[in-house]
User: Which sequence fits this backbone?
């Protein structure tokens, strides 16, 4: 039980930390008129480009490979859904301070897009967002390039393995590929969701105290101390500004962590801060200060290589879908950031847990029809479609409810926002 709790804490820390740098990047845009104007122009360009690509049937897919080429009608619908899903994910990041990226795959798979295409497309969307984060994030100067190079060396190998696994399973049977990805998400989202709801009820008993682990200073763990004691050359020095003389860790250990993170990133379409932050801080004992800049730097290379070299050139990138996700998330994060001051800490666990459980139920209810298509079980088509529809209603119902709640919090506190703006101008 203690081990499971530690794993949960690590994953949640990663979600909070990754969302924090997205939020800070968003705030740097909101506070700068030139950046805000650039963002508005970028959104218009993305909207136009996405629309053009939809009607071109994504003919500009990198590599020209059309392993996945949906009809125009479906592509336009998927583009609109991608904008809405990206917007909801951005709202989660901005309003309650946790990453919403883990629900993108279940949400898009539930409308009929193949899992491997969603994974590749989401990685491309993360690549574009990582470039933006690199351009505007104030803490980028904290990059430890030695750590970044060691991590990227491992992540490239891991991404290659993860991409190969996904493509191999898809080539065996596209339905099996959807099952493979869905089962992984069922395990991950169920684990995170149930623990988050459990924490919410504990917070209700304890009061409304905030429980944001990303704001806490994490001490060096026992595992990190043991790993740092292994003197396997070459050694990398880091945290010179945090600890007198700095700390050291083996290049090989950092590369190994990069390999595992890269593998999961390529298989699931997630990674970035979600896995890198807890790996750096809890396993390697690297300070949050150094981790932030280093992770933003490496995510550009990891997601760029994963999306292009492992998915795009094989035809598993839906370009207009990536445009929709990026457009929606950019707007969602900005809007959610305005309401972040009026959200109680207790609500963070509740909404995060509900969305995770909604994604869990969505993928779980989709599995019976998938298993039936594979011949593993036998159920009627109407029952399978009914279960899938129930999963879609649950997931999108929770997402819509959350979006409406954020709008309500914004409107009910609009006077406070105006007063704060006037005080800053005065």
Assistant:
């Amino acid at each position: 039980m203690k081990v499971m709790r530690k794993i949960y804490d690590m994953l949640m820390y990663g979600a909070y930390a990754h969302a924090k740098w997205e939020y800070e990047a968003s705030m740097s845009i909101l506070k700068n008129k030139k950046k805000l104007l650039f963002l508005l122009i970028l959104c218009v360009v993305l909207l136009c480009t996405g629309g053009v690509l939809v009607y071109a049937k994504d003919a500009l897919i990198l590599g020209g490979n059309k392993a996945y080429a949906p009809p125009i009608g479906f592509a336009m619908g998927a583009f609109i859904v991608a904008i809405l899903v990206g917007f909801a994910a951005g709202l989660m990041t901005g309003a309650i301070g946790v990453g919403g990226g883990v629900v993108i795959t279940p949400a898009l798979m539930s409308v009929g897009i193949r899992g491997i295409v969603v994974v590749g497309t989401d990685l491309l969307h993360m690549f574009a967002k990582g470039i933006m984060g690199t351009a505007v994030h104030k803490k980028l100067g904290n990059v430890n390039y030695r750590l970044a190079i060691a991590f990227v060396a491992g992540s490239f190998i891991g991404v290659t393995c993860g991409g190969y696994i996904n493509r191999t399973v898809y080539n065996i049977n596209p339905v099996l590929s959807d099952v493979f990805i869905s089962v992984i998400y069922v395990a991950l989202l169920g684990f995170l969701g149930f623990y988050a709801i459990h924490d919410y009820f504990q917070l209700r008993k304890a009061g409304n105290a905030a429980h944001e682990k990303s704001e806490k200073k994490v001490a060096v763990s026992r595992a990190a101390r043991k790993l740092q004691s292994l003197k396997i050359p070459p050694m990398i020095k880091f945290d010179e500004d945090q600890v007198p003389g700095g700390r050291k860790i083996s290049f090989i250990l950092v590369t190994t962590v990069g390999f595992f993170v890269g593998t999961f990133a390529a298989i699931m379409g997630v990674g970035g801060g979600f896995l890198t932050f807890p790996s750096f801080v809890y396993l390697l004992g690297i300070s949050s200060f150094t981790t932030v800049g280093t992770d933003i730097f490496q995510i550009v290379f990891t997601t760029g290589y994963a999306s292009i070299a492992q998915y795009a050139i094989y035809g598993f990138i839906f370009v207009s879908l990536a445009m929709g996700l990026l457009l929606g998330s950019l707007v969602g994060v900005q809007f959610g950031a305005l309401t972040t001051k009026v959200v109680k800490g207790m609500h963070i666990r509740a909404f995060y847990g509900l969305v995770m459980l909604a994604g869990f139920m969505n993928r779980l209810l989709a599995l019976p029809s998938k298993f039936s298509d594979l011949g593993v079980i036998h159920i009627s088509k109407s029952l399978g479609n009914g279960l899938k529809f129930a999963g879609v209603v649950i997931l999108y119902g929770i997402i819509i409810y959350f979006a409406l709640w954020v709008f309500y919090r914004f409107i009910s506190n609009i006077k406070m926002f105006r007063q704060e703006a006037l005080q800053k101008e005065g």
